[in-house]
Write a structure and sequence with these properties.
alpha/beta; seven-stranded mixed beta sheet; 13 helices
């Protein structure tokens, strides 16, 4: 091995750790998918080249303690995930998932479409009872605490990931809650589960920001979703939205503005204000302690609120939403 080859191998081995650290940094800034995938492709090309028989022998001769296969496995664990764009937030598979879901089955609604228009009957509650929904309940910290604070209200929590939904169900069971039910389902099916005007308040806490441009319609605050919420909630209904992703918040301000929602309690750093009523979720606690400000708003449906036309392809500003929020500027990221 000549001096040039030795230096090249040494450089690649050191660069691998630097690339992995850079991926973690980008993902913490909400730039996960595109940049992380590009970096991982470069790493894999390097590793593929280094694992050729000739180069592997040279590496092991020059660096006896270097286990290239172990390094490759570590890189593969850095695959991009969709847990809010944060590193390491993907739930692990649970071997006993089916048994745990069955143990807490009293709190789970197996066929939510059959309850459409009849949710209060499920709770054996009067027709005037208030029903509220959380989309993406995660491990259930928010919905369980909300149900504890408001025993006179009814709550339905949706999540499409069974590994986290089962933890929310178990938490509610341990607390002995009777005014909350859980649905394993997607927010896109909301109209199939609930009748118009059946609910008066909707909670969206730390939803997936879907960073890529082509994924805009998957964001729970996209105008297509807002049109469904308008039909579900009716005039006077509210959407309580909270996120640590500022680009998503700016995007949401624009979408709420386009649909002519009345915006209240708009805050760009919730934990810097006096908010004793705020229910801090596990996710919120982790990222606020790392220095990420929490953004929050309440969007109310008024007589003027209506579904907005499709987003123009060149739309990149958040002017309409920011004017209602009292802030001027250009949307930093997340175009449609």
């Amino acid at each position: 091995m000549n001096q040039y080859e030795r230096k090249l191998i040494q450089t690649y081995l050191r660069a691998e750790t630097d690339i992995i650290n850079e991926i973690a940094r980008l993902r913490s800034l909400g730039l996960a998918d595109y940049h992380a995938a590009a970096a991982l492709r470069r790493v894999r090309r390097i590793l593929s080249w280094m694992q050729s028989e000739g180069m592997k022998k040279l590496c092991l001769q020059e660096f006896p303690g270097c286990d290239i296969l172990k390094r490759e496995r570590r890189v593969k664990r850095q695959q991009p995930c969709h847990g809010g764009g944060r590193l390491g937030m993907r739930p692990r598979k649970k071997r006993n998932l089916g048994r745990r879901l069955e143990a807490a089955s009293e709190l789970r609604v197996e066929n939510p479409e059959q309850q459409k228009g009849r949710w209060r009957e499920l709770f054996h509650a009067p027709e005037e009872s208030v029903l509220e929904i959380e989309l993406g309940c995660g491990k259930g910290t928010f919905i369980c605490e909300n149900a504890l604070r408001n025993p006179d209200k009814l709550f339905v929590a949706l999540d499409k990931v069974p590994e986290v939904l089962v933890m929310a169900m178990e938490k509610a069971a341990r607390l002995g809650l009777t005014n909350v039910r859980f649905v394993l389902g997607d927010a896109a099916l909301l109209e199939e589960f609930f009748a118009p005007l059946e609910c008066r308040r909707l909670y969206i806490n730390f939803c997936d920001p879907w960073h890529k441009k082509r994924q805009a319609k998957r964001r729970l605050t996209h105008r297509d979703f807002l049109a469904r919420y308008i039909a579900l909630l009716g005039v006077g209904g509210e959407i309580h939205f909270k996120t640590d992703n500022r680009p998503l918040f700016d995007f949401s301000l624009e979408e709420f503005g386009a649909c002519h929602f009345a915006l209240h309690e708009v805050c760009f750093d919730l934990h810097a204000t006096d908010a004793p009523w705020n229910i801090v979720t596990e996710y919120e606690k982790v990222w606020s302690e790392k220095g990420y400000p929490i953004n929050r708003l309440v969007a109310e449906i008024t007589e003027e609120t209506a579904p907005a036309p499709p987003r123009p392809k060149s739309s990149v500003t958040a002017e309409s939403g920011r004017q209602q929020a009292g802030e001027q500027g250009v949307c930093e990221a997340l175009p449609d």
